[in-house]
Amino acid sequence: MKSFARRNFCLTTLGLASALLLPAGAAQAQALESVKIVVGFPAGTTPDVLARRVAEKLAPSYAKSVIVENRTGAGGQLAVTAVKGAPADGSTILLTPLAMLGVYPYTYRSLPYNAEADLAPVSLGVKFDIAFAVGTGVPTEIKTVPDFIQWAKANPSRANVGSPAPGSPLHFAGAELSRLSKVDLQHIGYRGTVAAIPDLLGGQLPAMVSPLGEYLKYIPEGKIRVLATSGSKRSGFTPQIGTFSEQGFKDLEVQEYYGFYLPTKSSPAQVQALNTAIRQAMAHPQVKEALDTFGMEAAAGTPEELASTLRNYSKRWEPVIKNIGFKAD
């Protein structure tokens, strides 16, 4: 399976007991003047849009003014590093996919941050399924993952699976499918779905692993066919489509997450105040409407739940990455 990788290329539990004894909103005596949510991806991307919807709901209760700052570069590392070094006063918030914290330690030889040492978990933001889809380059009779595997065996020169983020769990899920099916599926890496989706629609790219939400608007017209989703049960967005597990690939039961963090020296009161504000924001109908567009579910919870999710996420992907032998640098 190393050939798959060769072709392309991260708590200590917080002591919140005293803060939890306070009434909601009392942990922070008054709203902050100005707050920024730092996102490691460009304007218009899914994390950016989510950050902007949440920012609208954090004002004016948590802060009088909340902006989104796009710190792009190094696959999201610059955003994490910026928050690591920010004042621990509740005014600088990180919204990040968990891959920057739970996958990068295994794909990069060194990182400028350590999730456990440098960041204070606040709350999960969202969870979502990933999905395996085929485009116009695959015959219409291919309707399931086993169908695709048989087609790939018969067409080895076309047995290519793309991802919009080399070195991400999307990439690695494709590698796992290759390993589990014992078919040499070659990875084709793209820089985002903006580049990948046209190739899927045009038939140049036979198949792709991507967040389910990236496919939703294309499913009705039939040019992109989602063959499987990655959750423990069928997605509410695509209840007609079976999971990987239903189709014989139980090891591909995975989910992706975004989480909210503060700098590590933030006080328990600051963490609790932001946690309360985020949970209220994520429950707002306008935020849910935005999440539906991206095929995501609100998943706000406690700081401890975020810490546990990150640990389990990291444990899930570590052996996969080591088996592939992938390194991003």
What can be said about this structure in brief?
The protein is of the alpha/beta class and 329 residues long.
Describe the structure.
The chain is of the alpha/beta class and 329 residues long. It folds into two domains: 2-127 and 257-324, D-Maltodextrin-Binding Protein, domain 2; 130-252, 3-Layer(aba) Sandwich (D-Maltodextrin-Binding Protein, domain 2). 37% of the residues lie in helices and 20% in strands. It has 13 helices and eleven strands. The radius of gyration is 20 Å and the shape is globular.
Number of strands: 11
How far apart lie the N and C ends?
A: 19 Å
The major pleated sheet works out as: 6 strands, mixed
- Strand proportion, as a percent range, falls in 15-25%
- The average pLDDT score comes to 91
User: Largest beta sheet: what is the strand line-up?
Assistant: 2-1-3-10-4-11
CATH superfamily of the largest domain: Bordetella uptake gene, domain 1
Number of helices: 13
Shape: globular
| Class of secondary structure makeup | alpha/beta
Radius of gyration: 20 Å
Tally of distinct domains: 2
Q: How are helices and strands ordered from N to C?
A: HHEHEHEHHHEEHEHEHEEEHHEH
The CATH architecture classification of the largest domain is 3-Layer(aba) Sandwich
